[in-house]
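question for whoever is on the cluster today: can someone run the full assembly for these? two chains, 593 residues total. i dont have access anymore since they changed the login thing
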Amino acid sequence: MLPKLPILNYLICCLLLCTACNKASNEPYDKVAAFEDLWSSFNRYSASIDARNLDWSGLRAQYLPLVNNDMSATAYFELMSQFLLAIRDPHVHLISPTRAMYTIDYLNYRRNINFNLTEQNYLQSVERHSASIVSATINDSIAYLYASDFKGDRETVAAIYKEIIQKQQSKKALIIDLRENDGGSVYNAQSLLNRIAPERKLWHTTENKTLGGFDEKFNWYFEPTTPSFKNKKIIVLIGRYTISAGERFSIGANLLDHVTTLGDTTANTQGSVMGREMLNGWKYTLTFERCLAPDGTNYGGVGIAPDIYVPTLSLDLNTEDALLEKAIELVE
Amino acid sequence: MKSYLLSFVFVFSLHPLWAQITSVPFSLGIGAGVDLIANRDISASPLEYSGFGLPLGLNFFESTGKFTQQFELRLILPQLTNNYRLSTPFQTELTNWYKVNLQYQLLYRLGEDHQHAVGGSFQSNFFLKEYDFLDGVSWDFATSLHLEYSYTLVLNEKSFLMSQVALPLVGFVNRKPSLTLDEVFLNDFYDEGGMSLLKYGKWKTLSPDWWQVQLDLLYHWQINTKLNLQAKLGLNYYQIQFPEKVNHLNFPIRCYLNYQF
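^ ran it for u. tokens below:
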């Protein structure tokens, strides 16, 4: 006789499994367990905890008693945001279906550029190469390159930098404006650095978080290429909104004798970022990579200071670009 | 879940009326089915993603008084079966997923009645998941040799049931190399595409680090002298412990129409 019953059971279970896929999004969840998982995930994956000397167990002890399953989703989001803001890492975001928290909005940072004003009052022969890369000339003798990020296809971006540097070869100096560069691919940052670096040199090292600590160091080098600006005066403008790969570029710029960094300290997070999700489906991001300057300095939690510091609070962004004027003065 | 397991235990523990094995000449066919999946990969997300996909498959089968050989290839690719999402109760979804299962079995029949058979199989199981958050990619890819046992029940002159159980002996288990996908890894991926993923893996024997159990129940129906139909119900569970734990359970249900040569 055929075993009809087990096969029928099997098919019914299959159907139940299928229907189980269509549950509503307001699925109840254990808020305490979700917090514990969030805490534990940062403990395992985040490179920012060591860099910032955080008492991670102390933070758990501080926040765990505040979590309970009766609190509203809004209150829970607020609490989780407060917990994550303790890391002060601009890479850390928390996204629920209805709300978003971006750490950088809570660090009291100010921008030190108003690009519309800069473009209108200071730049000539402006060329937009992509959504984030603009080149121009200043006073016919200075090349200007603005990059609001280092995102994009590596070969495309490399070709843009090459074209800009090639075109501006006759200029006596170059100003690279990274004041609102919010990062992207470190390879794109390296591509630009390679066009200003005079020799192969250690740029920085990176280590990725593992369950037991960090993996082995990976060395990043300047790999000079032509055409380049290696023998001319270069000013790199940075600020609190220079983030991630923009900050790694700043580490490199500070290592080069013919390059001067000018502006404010960078954001404070240089390693690569990744996403994960909480037990309730909310998304978050964290920095999983430790980035060290050649002398071993970890700028995580601190940011890279410029060679010439100009306090952002002293700037009036509605009337002038005092930083750019200072940069022009330095190269003239 | 318990119902599933009880069903299989029941099928495997039947005391059937045995009859002589039906010989099936080499036959080749195509088919389709439903693959029910539940997967939790901690190194990507603490949530379990479940749902189903619709695999397309290629199958060959041959059985004589001495041996049985089977080959099966099942593909679930977004290009073939889009819109079938694996999701969580919180409506987060995999943006894409790919599942490829390849298996070749060779079983030698034992005893005079040929009801029992033992042998081995070569399997290659690939499951790639793309999550909807930044750099949310994970995969498990195991190529392995298995010990197989099967038990055949002839139902009548046109049909038989064949139950099978497989346990892994040794395998090359390919997972993401570390907790995170760093720039060096992404650079490799950028330069070499999917082939770069094959660099990362570990040889494993059956252990808490990697274990798997696979059950299959095959129903064979001889339609006429040139065609046969094979329906298969399966259960496949595996667990891999690196870089963090992945649990995978799936129930493939498939049906093939084979042409006999």
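summary bc i know u wont read the tokens: The longest helix of chain B spans residues 2-12. The first strand of chain B starts at residue 24 and ends at 41.
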